[in-house]
Amino acid sequence: MRTKTVKQNKINVVTLGCSKNVYDSEVLMGQLKANGKDVVHEDENDEGNIVVINTCGFIGKAKEESVNTILHYANRKEEGLVDKVYVTGCLSERYKPDLEAEISNVDQYFGTQDLPNLLKVLEADYKHELIGERLTTTPKHYAYLKIAEGCDRPCSFCAIPLMRGKHKSTPIEDLVTEAGKLAANGIKELILIAQDLTYYGLDLYGKRNLADLLKELVKVEGIEWIRLHYAFPAGFPLDVLDVMKSEPKVCNYLDIPLQHINTEILKSMRRGTTFEKTNKLLKEFRNHVPEMAIRTTLIVGYPGETDKIFQELKTWVEAMRFERLGVFAYSHEEDTHAATLEDDVPEDVKEARVAEIMELQAEISWELNQEKVGKVFNCIFDRKEGEYFIGRTEHDSPDVDNEVLVDAKEHYIKTGEFVKIKIHEAGDFDLYGTPLK
């Protein structure tokens, strides 16, 4: 008679959505590892017999991807290929009752604030002492540092406050501790993330405190670049520009989603700004830190966006010449204020407007890149892909921005290292260069 062997559980964490979700998955994995659990991230062979899916619920396409991923693993469970499937994150927070009814063979659904309960069903204890202990899933030399959770902004189109709750800043001392631990593990670049960097510190210190946080983080030995993502335009603390100007470690880079420029659309979006105020802020950025690369995102097809209003947006994009720009087609999200408006721009028109703006931005990017030919940039190299080593300047964030390509047949570069690169050719979004000896 054959005796039954005890199967060792392996937990496969699957992450969907934005960098905030990546961070949350890393914290979960760090907790599991500290509890002695065997944990992997997005195992390509699907080896884990327990699957945790960290979902995104931001807009329609992201929700669809999350649902399809849940269905994929629910089917694998039906087929006996995995034992347990757990779902967490934004989609689960927002639609838990619907998901439980529609995809009932998932073992349990958890919200965005349910980490201790999720750990409990995975037979692990939540360890409060693990400040900064994460199992990073990014390349060994950069990591995300989430400085706040949630959002207090009333933007009409956004469901994030419904999924992430109110804004809650992480104390400066905890973030410095976390940065120190990351640096000790070889991290050289910190990418600061939050739903809203601009608001950082108001709840803890009674003032916008991003500049003070940066002044402490630059002191962390081993950290060489600090990059700012997701600042809100209304109330932006201009003292951050002084720190960016004076501290070499703070990259001349800012991701500031502006969403639109037409004053009436901005008012309907509840963005707390206008055409004039937005342009005044951008002028402050350009005057104070001329070297800054500004990355922004826009929404086209918002309710009430006529052809004339869209042309205003397009003319403004042409005039502003943003270094980096992305565009989303408006997604009508239930339970948001904008959902009370008529979604009156047809989908094909939305997609055509996305294409128009991105075509214009490709031209702008090409022209700005030509100005870089012949210049030397300090670049960090993320990976080797095909025949090229692929790196970035301080003006480029991983996965979303331009890249610097160096011919691997001609040169060798160690990934994770900084190298001076002279640019000899430039395309719409890629730069080609050679290392200086």
Task: Provide a quick synopsis of the model.
The chain has 437 residues and is of the alpha/beta class. The protein is built from 13 helices and 18 strands.
Structural summary, described in words:
- 35% of the residues lie in helices and 22% in strands.
- By secondary structure, it is of the alpha/beta class.
- Strands 6-9-10-11-12-13 form a six-stranded parallel β-sheet.
Which helices and strands, and how do they pair?
Layout: E1 10-15, H1 19-34, E2 38-41, E3 50-55, H2 60-78, E4 84-89, H3 90-102, E5 108-109, H4 115-121, E6 142-146, E7 148-149, H5 160-164, E8 168-169, H6 172-184, E9 189-193, H7 202-205, H8 210-217, E10 225-228, H9 239-246, E11 250-255, H10 263-269, H11 275-288, E12 293-300, H12 307-320, E13 324-329, H13 347-370, E14 376-385, E15 388-392, E16 403-407, E17 418-426, E18 430-435
Parallel strand pairs: 1-2, 1-3, 3-4, 4-5, 6-9, 9-10, 10-11, 11-12, 12-13, 16-18
Antiparallel strand pairs: 7-8, 14-15, 14-17, 15-16, 17-18
Terminal Cα span: 69 Å
Strand content: 15-25%
Please, what is the average pLDDT? 92
Oligomer status:
single chain
| Low-pLDDT residue intervals, each spanning 5 or more residues | 1-6
Looking at the structure, what is the overall shape? globular
Q: What's the gyration radius in Å?
A: 23 Å
Largest sheet: 6 strands, parallel
Spatial order of the strands forming the largest sheet:
6-9-10-11-12-13
Individual helix count = 13
Structural class: alpha/beta
Which short descriptors sum up this protein?
13 helices; 5-stranded parallel beta sheet; 18 strands; 35% helix; 437 residues; disordered N terminus; alpha/beta; 22% strand
